[in-house]
Amino acid sequence: MRKSALTLIALLASLCATLLPARGHAQAAYPDRPVRLVIPYAAGGSLDVVGRVLAEKFQASTGQTLIIDNRGGAAGQIAADYVARSQPDGYTLLLGTAAQTSIASAYFRKLPYDPLKDLVPVSLLVNTSNIVFVSKDFPATTMQQLRQQAQAHPGEISYGSPGNGSVSHLATALFEDRTGLKLLHVPYRGAAPALNDLAAGRISILFTLLASAKPLLDSGKVRALAVAGPARNPALPDVPTLKETGIEGADSGVWIGVMAPKGTPGAVIDKLNEVIMQALRAPDLRKRLADSGADLAPMGPQDFAAMLAQDAKTWKDVVAAAHIQTE
Fold this sequence. Notes:
By secondary structure, this protein is α/β, with parallel strands linked by helices. It folds into two domains: about 30-125 and about 255-320, D-Maltodextrin-Binding Protein, domain 2; about 130-245, D-Maltodextrin-Binding Protein, domain 2 (3-Layer(aba) Sandwich), CATH 3.40.190. The chain has helices at about 1-30, 45-60, 75-85, 100-105, 145-150, 165-180, 190-200, 210-220, 265-280, 285-290, 300-320, and strands at about 35-40, 65-70, 90-95, 120-135, 160, 185, 205-210, 220-230, 255-260, 295-300. Strands 1, 2, 3, 4, 5, 6, 7, 8, 9 and 10 form a ten-stranded mixed sheet that branches. α2 (about 45-60) crosses α9. The chain is globular, with a radius of gyration of 23 Å. The termini are far apart. InterPro entries: BUG, Bug_dom1. Pfam families: TctC.
């Protein structure tokens, strides 16, 4: 009996020795199948531009496809909730913004997920100031003229956004508060449909990124009046900042970063960050993003988490100071 027990123990030990290296090899092989990158807006917006550029480099680096999955609606909350509820294994990721995280925590009273706990930072990609765009037929070519039009027609001049609680929505609400203007909000299911209606003249104003609007700007279907940031955009050297036009405290922008479900192993997050940082160092990717108007701001998980915490406080203060009605 004792000899049989010793034999069994020896067999089990041999089996474990065989399996453990295989398990370690499987972990080291991540990713060993396609990875889904969920974009919380319709195709054609600024996040879509960034996501598709990243996808090319991801496949070249890992040999696996980065599947772009556009899931618009509810200012990106549908997509964020989907990712938050996904298996935390690194195969379902969110290309997120403040709208699904720091703004969501400040603006929405009830959400199906915790925006600051159920999604963990992986890599920050870009951080870019908004641009104030108007339709080509809007009767204002400067911010001063826009203010005059809005003052003459309070509550009648419309502005679009990718949805209630989006960065664009709160950025314009902040602009209203700082200028004392009253505009008419028209929410959409992403930046792309809002831009289409701006080009068609169905709405008059849109705060969004140059990456989203550049094709329409280049074709003359929309016009840029101001940069909602501390400095002019190098791609638009003749467009002044809001501060240069006499408007203080109304700066806003959009950061874009990759996030994963809470509980994703640290080794997987580190691998993802390594692949993404490598992609962001590629000269051709940097040029493509710069040409689209995106400002690169690469950060790893720890720095991204610290930035996110500060961003949440900033938007909470904005919502309170601008007396923005929460939902």
